[in-house]
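Cross-check.
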Amino acid sequence: MKRDFIHVSDYSPVELQAMLDLAVQLKKEWQAGGNPPLLKGKVLGMIFQKPSLRTRVSFDMAMRHLGGDALYLSPNEIGLGQRESIADVARVLSGYVDAIMARVFAHEHVLELAKWSTVPVINGLSDYNHPCQAMADALTIQEEFGSLKGLNVTFVGDGNNVAVSLMHICTKLGANFTIACPEGYDLPPQAVELARFFASTSGSRLRFLRDPHEAVRDAHVIYTDTWTSMGQEAEAKKREAVFPPYQVNAALVAEARPDVIVMHCLPAHRGQELTDEVADGPHSRIFPQAHNRLHAQKAILVKLLVS
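Predicted model, tokenized:
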């Protein structure tokens, strides 16, 4: 039976940890000279509605490193849901490729692809969540601290798709999750409800605050993201007036633990949500985090296509 990777919440803590452990193994193999061709003869079809650096290159290279191939499909080539119905795209591609990765605007589009596809579908980003990013985030935190269990992870900024998946993987794996965001930019209620359920099992603590200074106190991880995501450009001016108190700068970082790490999913708007001093400073892990997209996604691909 085929399995998709649409939400972190679809996988148990044991399954998520197993994928992280596999990512560690695959990363070590690659650094030692290369991965075995676990995906030889396999092709990943990559549907893009949004532009991408990390998602496109990391998935493409993940397939190549594992002996497979990737096919890039631009927005103009498919016109997902416009030129052709999503159901028809899913059924046609299922006869050509071994898995589909889709980076979309509307979460409903990736759900519809998964409904009609007979091959695994991977959510490369939607307006609701970003599960592949969360896997890379968890891998980065695990490399730094050994485990997520009991850590204090603080997200500062907009309660967006990245924050949703980060909250879910933290509460699945036992990290305490705090978000500080302005009024009107909270996490979706349905995502919070799920996180509360996961936390009741894992022992995680959840906090939803307005004050970023209170939020970063005793934080092991400070995470931020752009104030205006793709598709929200019309709100940019309004958001630029609301979010400056949530900038992750040296003064804010100094209020956290001495061993705190700073993370950002990129692209960063330097001088807005994150200062150059922090992005390029000793606490920053933004580039190892970006590189871990490759290794985390290798583990997802192997889980879906080999396991």
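The two ends are 11 Å apart (CA to CA). The chain has a mean pLDDT of 96. Passed to J.P. for a second look.
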